[in-house]
Amino acid sequence: MPEKDKLRIDKYLWAIRMFKTRTLASEACKAGRVKLDGQNIKPSHEVKIGETYNIAKGPDRKIITVTGLLENRVDAKTAVNFYSDLTPVELTPGFKSMFHAPMLRRDRGTGRPTKRDRREIDDLQGEYFNKPEDTEES
Questions:
Q1: Residue 58 belongs to a domain
Q2: pTM for this structure?
Q3: Which of 19, 35, 123, 135 has the smallest number of CB atoms closer than 10 Å to its CB?
Q4: Residue 72: which CATH number?
Q5: Is residue 67 part of a domain?
């Protein structure tokens, strides 16, 4: 495995398969979706072993710690050895969808939903997806 002493964050995130392309990794850094200790970092930031990064990729949130530097992109099984995932289970999309998503079931053979059915489905999904999280009432 080729390892280096100095490595840019955008190249590292691409190599460990957090982003599909290096350009996407660079844009995520520029947009402030990659943070080190709560601070936005530039794509040219040098990665050091032991640093912890918060990565926001759409609805997904990841917290990773660098365990090794990887210059070139490798297969997923190998890439896992170069970072440790510290993301709490509650933040994973699988956990959220499994326990909190509304279950929509329609009987087989009932056909397409009517306009009224569609509105009810949209209202049910809207209550789930548009609810404010962690709001406290005084």
A1: yes
A2: 0.65
A3: 135
A4: 3.10.290.10
A5: yes
